[in-house]
Structures are given as structure tokens and as C-alpha cells.
Amino acid sequence: MTINSVSLVIAGSGGAGVVTAGSLLLDAAAQAGWYALMSRSSGPQIRGGEAAAMLRFATEPIMSHDDSFHLLMAIDWDNIGRFSAEIPLVAESLIVGDPAHGAAPAALLAGRPRQAALAMSEIAGRIENGRPNMVALGAIAGLIGLPPEAMQAVVEKNLGRKGQAAIDASMAAFHAGFAAAADLPATPKLPTVATSVAAATEPRWSITGNEATGLGVIRGGVRFVAAYPITPATEVLEWLAPSLAKVGGMLVQAEDELASINQIIGASYGGVPAMTATSGPGLSLMIESLGLAVAAEVPLVVVDVMRVGPSTGIATKSEQSDLNIAVYGLHGDAPHIVVAANSVPDCLFTTQWAVHLAEAMQAPALVLTDQAMGQARAIVPKPAELAFIGQRLTASAPAVEGERYKRYAMTASGVSPMAIPGTPGLTHTADGLEHNEFGTPSSQASDHHAQMDKRSRKLTQFNYGDHWADIEDSEVGAGDTAIITWGSSTGPAREALQRFSAAGGRARLISLRLIAPVQPEKMAEALAGIKRAVVVEQSHSGQFYRMLRAFYELPAQTVSLHHGGPLAFGPKQILDQLNQLNAGSA
Amino acid sequence: MESCAQKKKYAAKDYKSDLKPIWCPGCGDYTVLNAITRALAELALPPEEVAVVSGIGCSSRIPAYTSVYGFHGVHGRALPVATGLKLARPDLTVLVTGGDGDGFSIGGNHFLHACRRNVDITYIVMDNQVYGMTKGQASPTTAPDWEGSKLTPEGTGINPFQPLVVGLASGANFIARVSSSDPVNMARIIVEAIQHPGFSLVQVLSPCVTFRPEQQEWRDIVRTAVVDYTDDAARAARRLMTDDGFNVGKVLYKGSRPPFRPEFENTNGSVTELEARFAL
């Protein structure tokens, strides 16, 4: 089965305007009953500057972009040539530009796409208060088969406050563009699935990865968030601030990331489930205190919306290169939880699960998402209700009546009942210094070993169920070939598996959600009968591949497919690797 | 303290743990511990309703020597931990204890913003102008010509940090300086600091007998400040900027800025309502 989809880019120097145009189109696509994914790329400018909204529409749920785009609609050219690597165009692609802004930059023409002209500004100029953006949206709608009624509903909702004249002007420009599309070279069209949202077959959501992350932690029970702004994690925090207030929680803006991590340690010590969100540079600053949360056994969640590193890197673009710091960054032996979301809606599942894991094991949980999924908006089937609620084992009395309370008591599970401040008779000091069972500082080897065993046991003995990985097989079974991946690379890997399967191939996709602690037994089970594997990740040094090599028994024939950000993998790159692996073995 | 008469009676020893401090004999921090426990007894606060938070350093050991809830974190980060704890649990009385290196050097940024944010916590800084736990290096409050450390054998050559001036300029709502040689008065001032709403800063001149033995003379140098506190920040600033650092035993400034306290709004909203915004 190959996905019936249309992919297009809206580009221009309008900065937020391009993304706004993309959002209108996304909402209209939802009206038409389609599923959609919109990601964005922008230059470093604070305001204005070149920007591109990359959209893919389909009649079924999608989690990845296609290998190339059918259509590039350029409102103007500005510095759009800088995005050429992120906007693959081929001979079947169509570039539509406004002749008033000159010719397309050469960088966009390497794949020899077809070209056509649309006088967007001139057409818009003939309409009172008409805007080139709306002309462009009309032309796109005409080209891809989006019914004008779908856009009408969206414009009425978005411009309702500005009055009927504004709605009419926008729709007049849209219809002018729609009519002009008849004279443009054809692109693939999608069939209309529904004539309204209400008529669509299943309930759907429009949500970004960063919003899903915020919702996930609230569903998990987080009610205290400390925050320091950083691209591309800021939207998680901006969504959480008003949302937490609505459910009796609180967000505090801290002076730096050292303060945010320590504020949430304080709040969680006080018994209120807590989290923060950041990106690589902020995570680097938080690392020492994450070790404190390990030693003092304070549950908390830190979301790292990864961007291109090292240092400031490319702050606005995506990379899967914080795996090493997340897993190995803490000094000492510091067992902690690392989980990774593998799609926009999975940000909801994985962060909610992370709150549950952190609270259950009284340990810090790191959640890795990235710019690509965090800032992407998707039309998805309504996510399922999840049972994961953060529940902490608390103490209301000493384990043995009349004896002194042991905060760090040895237990079979390694988890010790935690006395929350305010509980009479159980006062103690939680400590980053190594300590004995009471929490009293100790420099004795026996206490250190016992406490290390306990902190490690909590994590290794926990039952993670089936959530450690998403495992999917071709329709006709797993065969003996596997794709092993994580995070954002899962989307294109899923689609590669679908295409491989449609062509009669058999393979298994293993997308790891639980990065640490590692699960060698479960992986061995998942790899039973697998003879060949390709490991896919967006990291220059192959961090994931090396981690797998260190902790897992991989098939003898395992190849690593990896490159640095910000380029995402296209499904075809992974499919080619699958075919090559199988050809080699045949 | 008449209202305390109805409350359960506590003695200072009720707030002490049975752990023996690691401090050197003669260390000023012993009397600070005594003053804190004495103040808590005077306020008759149930031990479980008090939390003492600290970072790293000799004086940061205090939480373990008390019988209240304690949190002993990493170097320089006590104030953010206390901020998170107090905001999440406004019902608790939250104290922070630490030294000059922990608070004004590695934790300097948090000090500025804790004063500015004005959360209702009490910060007791034992200032001995030296890093004691790492065996005697210059701290941010050390005089520029102190040559006692192998790390800076010619002295630091830079002027000392002025914690109370900086605290005032940053927005601390209560400022006092006390001497560890007068624990009874120190306890009285800590009581006031805890009772005063917002961020209260108490600087304690607390000698390090091991690495700064000359500080034992402080007990003869300090003098009780001649004037009472002011609520005028400009007057307080002038006073703090012209004194020699040895005017002790009185509150120097009391502000009336309301503490930072975002409410946990209970707007009866539900997660379902949040989700509804995503539904098409």
C-alpha cells in the first residue's frame, strides 16, 4: 500500500505570514476530511526573513514527509534558495512563482522541476484589501483538489472578529487564485473525503508536538513547571502557562536553566509532580542537578526538544544528537530514565508515560523530542485515553512502629516510601551527599554500594510492559530484516516499511521509546529470526547505532544509516537501504 | 509572642537532630544552628511544617543537624530549590542556610533573582569570607589583600562583594546583619525575618577559626547598630554603603513589597476542557 498524498511548500520572506498561510491550509484540509502534517523551516531572523511551511496531505494518517514535494508555491523568493536542501524538488515537481519577484533561485532548480508563473501580487492588487497569500492559497487549493467551501469555513472562523468585509476580501483573493489554477500545469489531486469536519469518519485532532508534550505532562499529573525560554522548546512552556492555571497548577519563569531544574526539584520534594522543558544547551546546564534528583530520589520530568548542536548550533532546526548527553551525561553512576517520542501524537503518550515512570520510581525521567516533531502540526486521529497517572509511593508512618523513619530504606523493588514535608513524625533530610537509609550523610563504601544497588534496582526491575518500543511488521510478517530506529526518524522508517511491504518485502520496524534503562531481553525477543538490520538516526556520529552496539546483540549484518541534521530522512533513503540489504543476501 | 501561648510548647532541642556536626571547635556556625532552633521554638512551629534547604559548604550542613524537613542540594542552588518548594507548598515555613561562596559566587545569579522575586523565604548566610570546606580559598567577600590562600598568594586584588547592598538593590524585603557571638539576639532577628513577608536576608558574621583565625577578633570589633531599621530603601542604601560591615544586631531594612505568590488558581477547569481545544 502506498500512501495517497500531496506534498507542497509555501515559501516567502513573510516570516510568520508563510506559517499562517500554511496553518489556514492545514485547517481547511481538516475540513475536507484529510490528514496532514505541517513542519516549518525558518531563518534566524526574529521577525520577517525567509520561511517555509512544508505540508503533506493524505486521505489516511501520516507521520512523515515524502521524498520530494509536488509543489513549491513562492510568494516571493528572498533567500529561499537557502532552504533548497530541505525542499527536494524533482522533474515532476512544479514551482510556481510571482513574475513580479523575478526568476526562481538556481539552487531550487537542480532537480529540473517544472516552472510556472502566477501574478499573485497583481491579482491581489485588483481586489480591495486582497492579499497575495490568499491568492496563493486559492491556487494551491485549485491544484490539489481542496474544495473552496473548506477554506470558506476556516476563513470565517479565523477572520470573524475582523468583520464580513475582511472575510469577503480574503475569499475574493482566494477564488481569484483558485480560478487561475486552471491555467497552471497540473499537480496530483486528492479526493475530498468529507464536506465538513462533522462529516469526517473519525474524530480527529489538530495538534503540534510541543502542545502534545504539554498536554501529556498535565494528563500525567504535573502541576508545577519552572521554565526558561529556549528555541524550539518555548512553545511547550507557552502552552503550559495558561493551561496549568486552568487545572490548578502553576508555571514560574526562572532566571536560568540551573534555577528551573532546581525549582522543580524543590516543588517535587514538596510533593507536587513537576517538570521543565528545554533544548540541548539548557539540558547541559541542568545535568549536575539531574544527578541530584537521582541521588536524592526526587521524581521529575525534563523534556529536551532537540535542535542542531553542539553549542548554539542551528537553534531553529532539528537533530537527534542529544542521545549521548541524555544517556551518559551525568557524572558518577546515575541511573535515570530516558524515553523518546516518535511522532507528533506520541509526544502526548511518551510524556504522560514519563510522568508515570518518574513518580513510580522516584527518579528523573528525560524525554527526548525534537524541533521537527515539536514544531510540526498534524491532523491526527484523536489520541487514545491513557491510564498513566503519576503515583508516588508515600509514607505516613515509619515502616516499623516506634522506629525512626528511613527515607532511603532498602526494599525489594528499590523504591522507598517517601515522606512529604508536612507529614508528622517522618522529618528527614533528602541529600545529594551519599547517605545511609535514614538520609544521614555517609562516606562508607557499604552505604554507597547499597544505595547504588537500590537506585539501579528501581529502574531495572520495573515492568515497562510493551511500551519500551513500537514494533510493526509488514502485512505478511516480519521476515528476517529489521529497521531499528528512534524518535523523528520513525516516521520515514514507517513509510519505508509500508512501501517495502507493498512491493512484497517482509521486514520488522523496531522504534525504541525506552532508551534507558536498556532492555536486552526484550530486544533479543524482538530480533528473534532477524538476520539483517538497518539502524536509522539523524546524528553525524551514529550515537544510536553505537549505543545499540554497546548494549544489544545485533544481527551479524547490521548497517548504520545516519547523517546530521537538519535534513530529515526521506522514506526512499531507508527503502533503498532495505532493498540493498536484501539484494545482498539474495 | 502571646499567640504562641496557646500553641504546643517547643524547646530549641526539639529542632535538633542527634547528628554531631562536622564543624571545627569554635566555628561560628554552632551558634547559628542554636539560634535557628531557638527561633523555631519561639515561633512554636511544628517541626514537620518547616523545611531547611541548603547547597554545599560547611554551613550548608545545617539541614541534617535539624529535626525539620531538610534538603541538601548541590553547590549554589539552594535558593531555587527553596523557591520551588515554597511556591508549591505555601503552607510550609522555608529557610535557606549557606555560606558566602555558595550564595554569592556560584549561586550569585539566584541570589539576585531570589531578592527580586521576593518569595516568602528566609535566607541565613553565614559569611566567613573564606571557602572552608575546600580548605581555605578566597571567597567573594574576602578582602582583596588577603594572602592566606595558595590559590591567590598575592591576594585576589578585587573588591569584595557587598551582599546587603546588592540584596537591597535587587529587592530583598528584609535585611539584617548579626554576629554569631550574640546567639540570643540572632534568634530574635531570625524570628522577625521568618515573620516578615517576602524574601528575608540575614547576614551572619560567622568566623572560620581554622582558615581565618584572625576573625576571632570580630567579637570585639562588632558593635550594635545605633539606629533602628528603615523602610526607606534609599536611606538603607546610604547606610549600608557607608558602614564598615561590623554594625550588627539590628534589622537594617524592612520593605513592604507583597511576596511573589502566583495562586494555584482553582478555576474548576478540567483536562477534558484542555483537550477540547485540539478537537476538530
Order of helices and strands of chain B: HEHEHEHHEEEHEHEHEHEEH
CATH first level of the largest domain in chain A: which class? Alpha Beta
- Give me the side-by-side strand order of the main sheet of chain A: 6-5-4-1-3-2-14-7
Structural class of chain B: alpha/beta
Estimate what percentage of residues of chain A fall within beta strands. Answer: 15-25%
Indicate the radius of gyration of chain A in whole angstroms: 26 Å
CATH superfamily of chain B: Thiamin diphosphate (ThDP)-binding fold, Pyr/PP domains
> How many distinct folded domains of chain B?
1
Structural class of chain A: alpha/beta
The portion of residues assigned to helices of chain B is: 25-40%
| Count of DSSP strands of chain A | 21
Question: What is the CATH architecture term of chain B?
Answer: 3-Layer(aba) Sandwich
Q: Please give the count of helices of chain B.
A: 10
Q: Write down the CATH topology of chain B.
A: Rossmann fold
CATH homologous superfamily of the largest domain in chain A? Pyruvate-ferredoxin oxidoreductase, PFOR, domain III
Q: How would the blueprint of this fold be written?
A:
The complex is a heterodimer of chains A (586) and B (280).
Chain A: E1 5-12, H1 16-31, E2 35-42, E3 51-58, E4 71-74, E5 94-97, E6 114-117, H2 120-125, H3 132-144, H4 148-159, H5 164-180, E7 204-208, H6 209-220, E8 224-227, H7 234-246, E9 250-253, H8 257-269, E10 274-278, H9 280-296, E11 300-306, H10 323-328, E12 337-340, H11 346-361, E13 364-370, H12 371-374, E14 377-381, E15 429-431, H13 445-460, E16 469-473, E17 481-486, H14 490-502, E18 508-512, E19 514-516, H15 520-526, E20 532-537, H16 543-551, E21 557-562, H17 571-585
Parallel strand pairs in A: 1-4, 4-5, 5-6, 8-9, 8-10, 10-11, 11-13, 12-13, 17-18, 17-20, 20-21
Antiparallel strand pairs in A: 1-3, 2-3, 2-14, 7-14, 12-19, 16-18
Helix pairs in contact in A: 1-3, 1-4, 3-5, 4-5, 6-7, 6-11, 8-9, 14-17
Chain B: H1 29-43, E1 50-54, H2 62-65, E2 69-72, H3 78-88, E3 93-99, H4 100-106, H5 108-117, E4 122-127, E5 130-131, E6 137-138, H6 163-170, E7 174-179, H7 183-195, E8 200-205, H8 218-221, E9 223-224, H9 233-242, E10 247-248, E11 250-254, H10 271-276
Parallel strand pairs in B: 1-2, 1-3, 3-4, 4-8, 7-8, 9-10
Antiparallel strand pairs in B: 5-6, 7-11
Helix pairs in contact in B: 1-7, 4-5, 5-6, 6-9
